[in-house]
Each structure stands twice: as C-alpha cells, then as structure tokens.
C-alpha cells in the first residue's frame, strides 16, 4: 500500500475506504504513532458496529502495546461513550468509526486524556508523518516490555454519568420513538433510558454497519422520513434520531416536524445557564440562528461566536471556560462532559424540558425558533474563490450591510444574514440564510444562490 495518507488523514480524524485506502497493518502503525505522540503509558480504545471495526481496533491496540503501552478495550460503544471513558479514566482514546459514511468506510477519532481533541494542529499531522515514514521503511522499534490488553465495559457507568448531569426527577411519562439508524444508538439508548418513565418505540436498533434501512445521517431530511411517520402513527410525544456513532442527535416534535439544531442549542443553553445560576459562556458557531445568542443573553449568559468545526468549538470552550456549546450540525458540547460533544446528553435535556411541563414539544420549542432559515444549501462550483469574491463584490458598500470573513463570508443586515463557506473536501459552496420572515429569507437566499451559481 502506498504510504500517502493525504486522502485519509482529515482535519480532525482519519477516514477512508477499507481496505482500498487503509487496512489493519496501517491501523497497527497508527496505534504505534498514537502511543508515541501522546507519550501515554496507557490508552483506551473503542469501536462501532461496522464490519471492519473490530479488526482495525484490535490492530491499533497491537501497535500501541508493541510500544509498551497498556490498552483498555471498551469494545462496542458510541463516540461519546469513548469520550466518557477517556475523561473518566483520564486516558488518551481512539474510537473506530466513520460516523454516517457508507459501510465501506472506516476511521479513527482520537483524543488525549480528558477527551481533549487530536486534530491537525494538536498531534494528527505528527501521527500521519510517523505512519507514512514507517510504512515506507522499517516498522517502529518495539518496546523492551510490551503493554497489556484488558477489556472493560463502560456502558453502565457512561449511562449513570449522563443521567447524573440532568435533573430527571420531574419527568412525566412520555412516549418517544428513537431511530438509531442501525448505529450505536441501538446499543446505548436502552441502557441510558433504563428506569426513566418512558415508553420507548425503537426503530432500527439492530447493529448493522451496512445500514440496510437508511443512511445514518439525520441531518439529511430523507433519513428522518421513517421517524416522522412513526411518531405520527404512534401518537408519540417526540422522536429522536442518532447518527451512526451516536454522537449527534436530531429531534422531531409530536407532529413529526423537524426541530432545528439551533432551537435545541437555545433550549439546552437556557437549561445549562439555569443550572449554573444564570451565569456562563455559551459557544455557538456562526451559522446557528440569531435565536441562540438572544436566548443566551436573555438567560444571563454570554454568547461567543466561533468558526464551524468541533476543534474551534472545543478550543473556545477551553479558552473561555464555557459551560455549553452547540452547532447547526447537531453536535452539542458540555463542560460537564470534558468539553466533548454528546448527542445523548442533549437528548436527555430535551426529555427533561418536555417532561417537566404539560404542553407539547412544538409549543415548548416555539420560543427558541424565532426566525425563518434556509438550512444548508450546497452548490457545486468551478472556482470557489472566484464565486466568494463575486458575492463580496455584489454586497460590499451596500447601505446597512456588513461583511465579515471569520469563516467564509457572512453578509448581514438588520433583517437578514447569510453565510457562504467553501467545503474543504469537495468543490462546493455551502449557503445558510436566515431572516425575520419567510419572504425576506427566500428573496435573500435566491439572490445569493444566483451569484453562487453564476
């Protein structure tokens, strides 16, 4: 196998087709490199339900033990369960998953002790360099004394920790449909929800990394159609969908109506601020709704706007001592969870908020969903920079309009805003638009799209 990992090592993780782009021998080298870069004497490793995950995970463990590092294998787990183990055991961790990517993909999400992220600027570039060097020449020198591999089940402890972070004592009986998409939610939900006054209607809880029912990506509207239908059929109070590695959750109301991740961010932010005495910093990326900073301020908090991407959110969480952070992509980050993202904890907050009052979820979230949004619209373009420049030229100097380039280009006025960002991996521009009413949003969205698409 060629030792060029440029297509496999991404900004925040390792991800590619198995065995075409990477395989078990390379996973073993990644384990050795992870051991060297972290300098740890012990690490924790987990994996999802993909057919290739157990073999890759064990190969990684072999690579680490060959360098004298002790490995705790927690086996099948969600990504946030791996973060829990990294935080609770204070060990660097590696999670084998490709989240919502198709079955032939796999990847590694890595973190340092306490679930601190490993990305390009925090160790991933060095790991790649070591793996490429070893693959091209000789394997790394083994340690005089190899490490050990031990197994540990963390599911019950993970579930108990999450439940300890949310006050569920006033939760009324609720009927909830959960679509696990054949991903790790099918493994974690029954244990996390155990003992709560919930009637659970499971959908696609069978662990199957070939995703026979639908792609495990609830941000794509096509993948929540089954959930929406089942919620209406069951007369359920809400529906929750998880992605493949169950670190993101998406919520639908009692009518099957999708609730924007911005509204969930605002709802959870208000609860976290109440828990912290009406004080605290909340991080949100620049394409979450205007509602988020408004709700944060109304509840006594300080909103901080960041670029899109979990490494930026986590860095700002650490820098500001923030209590919570949310993204439009349905990632939710908690200070009480080592600043890591956990969709399951966000789901518990939604259940507690809904079950702590008598009304329906649609009524509860209306106060957090105040504006008309387009959602993310992708356009394939020949030249990303030229199209961005054309937008800048079209709006620069317009009265009452401001531009900023924190991440892509954000164009704002009193009544609307839109952001255009280039994809790092595809020839796409991503447009998000929001306005005070639907008609204005449609007009601004269409004007921006006309320029993007030339």
UniProtKB/TrEMBL annotation:
Any signal peptide, and if so, which residues? none
Q: Which organism is it from?
A: Streptomyces vastus
- Family, per the entry? Belongs to the phosphohexose mutase family.
> What are the record keywords, sorted?
Isomerase, Magnesium, Metal-binding, Phosphoprotein
Give the Pfam families listed for this entry. Answer: PGM_PMM_I, PGM_PMM_II, PGM_PMM_III, PGM_PMM_IV
User: Which positions fall inside the Alpha-D-phosphohexomutase C-terminal domain?
Assistant: 376-448
Cofactors named for this entry: Mg(2+)
Describe the location of the Alpha-D-phosphohexomutase alpha/beta/alpha domain by residue ranges.
7-132, 156-256, 263-371
Keyword Phosphoprotein belongs to the record: yes
Is the Protein biosynthesis keyword given for this protein?
Answer: no
Concerning CDD domains, the annotation shows: PMM_PGM
- This chain's protein is named Phosphomannomutase/phosphoglucomutase
